[in-house]
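hi! just following up on the protien thing from before. the input was this:
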Amino acid sequence: MKAKEFDKKFNEGKNIKKYLDLSKARRPEQEQKRINVDFPIWMVHSLDKEAKRLGVPRQSIIKVWVAERLGEAIAK
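and the predicted 3d structure came back as:
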């Protein structure tokens, strides 16, 4: 398929997934890296309580809160 035809399908809102090889697709700066962080027990309990209230895993809360704080720091 030529680029013009591909662009036309995309611009028309047609599904173009079948024309892409997503097996090697990457999102720059979005790769994952595992780290270990030690928290006091009271903090873990508080995180778990908030996670349960929101219906999400503990890790999700930590990621969102850290991302928010980093976003604020970068914006300064």
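Residues 69 and 75 are 10 Å apart (CA to CA).
Helices lie at 3-11, 41-54, 58-75.
cheers
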